[in-house]
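Run log, item B.
One chain of 310 residues. Sequence copied directly from the ordering sheet:
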Amino acid sequence: MSKPRFAVADYAVYLAVRVLLCAVQMLTLPTARRLAGVLAWLAYHIDRRHRLVADDNLKHAYAGQLNDRERDRMVRGVYRHFVSVLVEIAHLPRMLNPNTWRRYVTLENGRAIVEGLLCGRPLLFVTGHFGNWELGGYVLGLLGFQTYAIARKLDNPHLNAFLLHRIRERTGQKILYKDGDFDRIQAALASGGAVATLGDQDAGARGQFVDFFGRPASTHKAVALLALEFNTPMVVIGMPRVGQPMRYRIVAEEVILPEEYAGRPDAVRAITQRFTAALERLARRAPEQYFWLHRRWKHEPPVRKGKRAA
């Protein structure tokens, strides 16, 4: 059961966030990044629960490779990176436009992205909680491409509307909510549209378990099922930071064609494992830019009856 919402509290939080954003936007980007470093230090020390989640995730993902001090250094880096991303998002509307985007973003293997968008077939972009995952749809919109992104609606309706209109849909990208918009998602693909989704979210006990950093991770089957149903090519992309201030690269890490899996009884699992492996490769290149703070391995594979009896 979801927690009850209080309209006054929601609006107070919204106003506080707007005031903070205005303050950040008044600063130059280098100054704002220095402020982000201070805020990240505070978040690291105050947010004990997520700090411990990140340490446990790293302990399993890099078993025997990182000692306590190295893991702690990486967790601090994760906080610095994502607080910096939030500060940069506040500056996006005034910094990125069709004439300036090349100062901040480069395309690696951009041919795979552009050809996918122009081929006349529907397209799935799969990314993860890595780098600045909000940037891809924003930049493609600046370039004139109509894309859709599957996202979770924020619990606070005022913050959700603000993020939707001022950032996510500012350049033409359309948001489809993961809860309640499945018909619209199917319609977008049926009409040849390009839909982006996060592929590294825990899917619960009934998800498809595939290997991620050497550990079974519950992953949503819907991505592979949509690719097969609509004969949709899939491009796995990442948006890592490559320089300061606010220098990013959009990387097309893997292209997966559904026809390669035609007739295979394990097609859903094979496609899910392939895009998950591509997301892992991206995260391994810059692990401090992966969102280790979320419980990626929240659920474990069900125990078979024979094993349970034994």
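Observations after the first pass:
- The mean pLDDT is 93.
- Residues 99-289 form one domain.
Flagged for discussion on Thursday.
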